[in-house]
Amino acid sequence: MSQHPELNNVNILSPPGGTLVWLFIVVEFLSFSVALTFLALFKKNNLTEFYQQQAKIDLRFGLIYTIMLLTSGWLVAEFVQDFFEKKLKSKNKLLYAIILGLSFLGLKIFDYSQKISKGESLGQSIFWDYFWLLTGFHFLHVIVGIFFLTVIYIKIGRFQFEDDDFAIRGSAAFWHMCDMIWILLLPFFYFSRQLV
Amino acid sequence: MKLSLTWICLLLLTFTGFYFNSGWLPFLLSAIKCFLVLLVFMDLRKEYWPWILTTGIVFLLPMFIF
């Protein structure tokens, strides 16, 4: 059974949030997947360089980013469930999720500025090109996700959405997509180190 | 309850990846986390299997090469 009882009449072409949102998600994953496939091929051919550069990345940042995004994703999922059960007081959960998303961006800007000061920026090596392009692209997605969540937060309780499923579940799906892209990037750049 | 348990599970998997950070284990943990997000947080049930399959294939492809 779904956590959303009103969704029990399943139409395979209408997943939660709508087909358009899911087509977008698949295309986004495809773009990241292609880029990471090239990164994987680069690593195969340049093992030493890859591990040398990867060792400069602080693992703890990866852990903190992931905790922030997963917690934010959980709060959004709780909010969506409550919204469709008409528990409008759960609006705060959405606010905490937005705050966590903003904290992610703040920490990322700090991390990026440190990297630039150490000379680990675009154009320094192929590894750093991949790092900046992929994490930067993800950064932009998080900004868009926060924008969607903020619009929902402002409108909820004051205005009626034309389509609740598209507005609420669609925005939540976009936010979870940001989580998933991060989860995909995590082992490539942070967690999968050289066996010693 | 289901969502909270999933969140705790996701955090535990993340900590496991943080401490055992070499080889294929972090990739396996990430794949599990992705499916947990898809199936629980995004509420994509088995009836939507084409979406799960497409997302899964697209998502996991580079992991096999890495």
Given the C-alpha coordinates, what overall shape of chain B results? flat
Quaternary structure? heterodimer
Percent of residues in helices of chain A: over 70%
Q: How many separate helices of chain B?
A: 3
Number of helices of chain A: 6
* Shape descriptor of chain A: elongated
Major pleated sheet of chain A: none
Alpha-beta classification of chain B: mainly alpha
Whole-Å distance between the termini of chain A? 46 Å
Distance between the termini of chain B: 36 Å
Query: What radius of gyration of chain B results from the CA coordinates?
Result: 13 Å
User: What is the N-to-C succession of helices and strands of chain A?
Assistant: HHHHHH
Rg measurement of chain A, Å: 19 Å
Please provide the count of β strands of chain A.
0
Q: Portion of residues in helices of chain B? A: over 70%
The largest contact between protein chains, plus residue counts on each side, is: A-B, 52 and 42 residues
Question: What do you see in this structure?
Answer:
The complex is a heterodimer of chains A (196) and B (66). Chain A is 74% helix and 0% strand. Chain A contains six helices and no strands. Chain A is elongated and about 55 Å long. Chain A starts with 18 loop residues before the first helix and ends in a 5-residue tail after the last helix. The mean pLDDT of chain A is 88. By secondary structure, chain B is mainly alpha-helical. Chain B has helices spanning 2-19, 25-41, 49-65. In chain B, helix 1 (2-19) packs antiparallel against helix 2 and helix 2 packs antiparallel against helix 3 (49-65). Chain B starts with a helix and ends with a helix. At the A-B interface, helix 1, helix 3 and helix 6 of A face helix 1, helix 2 and helix 3 of B.
